[in-house]
Amino acid sequence: xxxxxxxxxxxxxxxxxxxxxxxxxxxxxxxxxxxxxxxxxxxxxxxxxxxxxxxxxxxxxxxxxxxxxxxxxxxxxxxxxxxxxxxxxxxxxxxxxxxxxxxxxxxxxxxxxxxxxxxxxxxxxxxxxxxxxxxxxxxxxxxxxxxxxxxxxxxxxxxxxxxxxxxxxxxxxxxxxxxxxxxxxxxxxxxxxxxxxxxxxxxxxxxxxxxxxxxxxxxxxxxxxxxxxxxxxxxxxxxxxxxxxxxxxxxxxxxxxxxxxxxxxxxxxxxxxxxxxxxxxxxxxxxxxxxxxxxxxxxxxxxxxxxxxxxxxxxxxxx
Length: 319
Fold this sequence. Notes:
Helix content is about 35%, strand content about 20%. It is α/β, with parallel strands linked by helices. It has a six-stranded mixed beta sheet with strand order 6-5-4-1-12-13, with helices on one face. A five-stranded mixed beta sheet has the order 7-8-9-11-10, covered by helices on one side. The chain has a two-stranded antiparallel ribbon with strand order 2-3.
């Protein structure tokens, strides 16, 4: 009888533990669903209530050309304030740098008489991912998002006044997630993915701007320019040495050009005849970069693409 009682007690404890585990898992699912609904409500509030479409007259004339431009605007890091011996960055400096980048794109367009512009955007916010960034950020996430989205909207209108068509793609970065710990972040909880919704609402009256979706993999943009396959990711999950092999195996398609950001410097690498182009950082060197002796000027890239692929690559300095 004693042995039987012990067995029964053990069974009861096992069932009790099962119930406890089920309750923990159920509560976790409820928390995740609540966070998703809160995020969805935030999206609706930003996009549906606060964005008025631009109503402007476009003055571009269609033309034919043998080249297009591939522009990469990445690691913008809106919201961080930097003031060190190497770099000064704030909202006004960001505005100046995006205006300079836009001006340089238009200078290259006039030089090559390029027909269409493909703009890939990544990591628009400084975010909350590290404690030192939370201390350096002078705008909250919503203010960061609205400020940079409006700067990009103005940039796109200027481009649309010159090119036949402007195609816009987004590659979400690690800075723009809405929680600090990456272990706690849910798929889709990233402010970068709101940008296409904002731009579609803001620029819906501009016919030659196309805000494109990443239809195969949400974090990877895939498209074609003059018959050449372009793939782009932010770069925090890839490296220039293996990204071509990984993308080729993943999609059974060998890219002709791969764009990466994240490493905060311009670069060009050739891997199995594929050009891997890295673009730098709009915000420039922050205190963390200086502390680990990794300083670099704010810079981005512009590529001229023809029927045979990359014709030339422009090293754009933003200061």
